[in-house]
Amino acid sequence: MLAWRSAESGLPWCSGGLLLLGLLISMSGVASETFNVRTASTQLVGGIYRLHAQIDYPLNEEVRKAVKSGIPLIVNQEIEILRLRRWLWPKTIKEITLRYQLRYHALSEQFVLLYLSQDRQRAYPNLSAAIKSLSTIKDYPLITQEELEPHQRYRVRLRTRLNIEDLPAPMRPIAYLSPQWHLDSPWFSWLLGSPGL
């Protein structure tokens, strides 16, 4: 097995790399909180099922500092609609990903939330206000009644996550190694047209 030596330390690169990896992991600590879908439901209005949800986005200090330093964050809200089947696994009939970018605009000293799925944006005076807006999904048109088969049961599920792959290239190795950056919620599911369970 080949092992590269450091010119300064004389240690094999593989040993030094493992030591550095261990140091990074121990310094990063364990994330105390992560994203969480608190409530979600769908309501049939004018032939369209509309989604309502409340999501918790507790950003730890490391992630907050990164945003305030100008590093943009991409948050995905992933939605699936499944048709329930008696003897088979549920069949996915629709998948939707709502993408948002949260960034700090230094010139205006405001936090900007870009709705990448809808090509629009809003500015907020502070990070808390931007996160509060991101936390609410209201009246999102999910699926029409015509797209569904009559007399079938459907389940909706929702999760959200911070997309590490969309971070600037120099940040990705740190984010992959640090639990502080692994922010994603478990799936939250409910029957279509019913309150979330």
Side by side, the strands of the main sheet go 6-5-4-3-8-9
Structural class: alpha+beta
CA(first)-CA(last) distance: 53 Å
Q: What's the mean pLDDT score?
A: 83
Number of domains: 1
What is the alpha-carbon Rg in Å?
21 Å
Identify low-pLDDT runs: 1-32
Helix content: 10-25%
Range of strand content: 35-45%
Number of E-type strands:
9
Principal-axes geometry comes out as: elongated
Counting H and I runs of at least 4 residues, what is the number of helices?
4
Q: Report the sheet with the most strands, covering strand number, pairing sense and barrel closure.
A: 6 strands, antiparallel
Q: Secondary-structure element order, as H and E?
A: HEEHEEEEHEEHE
Brief write-up:
It comes from Nitrosococcus halophilus (strain Nc4). By secondary structure, this protein is α+β, with helices and mostly antiparallel strands.
Question: Can you give a write-up of this model?
Answer:
With 197 residues, the protein is of the alpha+beta class. The chain has one domain. It is built from 4 helices and 9 strands; from the N terminus they run H-E-E-H-E-E-E-E-H-E-E-H-E. It has helices at 13-28, 61-68, 127-134, 172-177, and strands at 36-45, 48-56, 73-83, 91-105, 110-115, 120-124, 136-144, 154-162, 188-191. The strands form 2 sheets. Strands 6-5-4-3-8-9 form a 6-stranded antiparallel β-sheet, covered by helices on one side. The chain has a 3-stranded antiparallel β-sheet with strand order 1-2-7. Strand 4 (91-105) and strand 5 form a beta hairpin. The termini are far apart.
